[in-house]
Specification:
Blueprint (H helix, E strand, L loop, with lengths): L2 H10 L4 E7 L11 E7 L3 H11 L5 E4 L12 E7 L3 H7 L3 H4 L1
């Protein structure tokens, strides 16, 4: 099964958003950037953990907070951008290093 097929199957089992060929301009305050292979906005910490366990070593991943201090290239990003929904989720994520290894 291809990675795109795996991602599409994964998206059927979650409440969060997983969108393909996503316009990165929508995700930062400067309205710059090209297209990302995929955009993932987890609904919960558990979804984030599942996603990272399944795809963390297979895909190029970029974690994005509010997008206020990021300059994004206009070229295609051949990876997945994960938008951390709220600061609490981001704080919890920083404690996951032991879980994901």
């Amino acid at each position: 099964m291809s990675e795109v097929s795996e991602l599409k199957n994964f998206s059927k089992d979650i409440k969060g958003k997983l969108i393909f060929d996503y316009d990165i301009k929508k995700m930062n305050w400067f309205n710059i950037g090209g297209v990302a292979k995929a955009y993932f906005k987890p609904e919960s910490l558990n979804e984030l953990i599942l996603f990272l366990k399944k795809f963390g070593s297979k895909e190029k991943i970029f974690l994005l907070g509010a997008g206020s201090n990021v300059l994004i290239n206009d070229s295609l990003f051949e990876g997945i951008i994960i938008k951390l929904r709220e600061i609490l989720l981001f704080k919890k994520f920083t404690r996951l290093s032991g879980i994901l290894k």
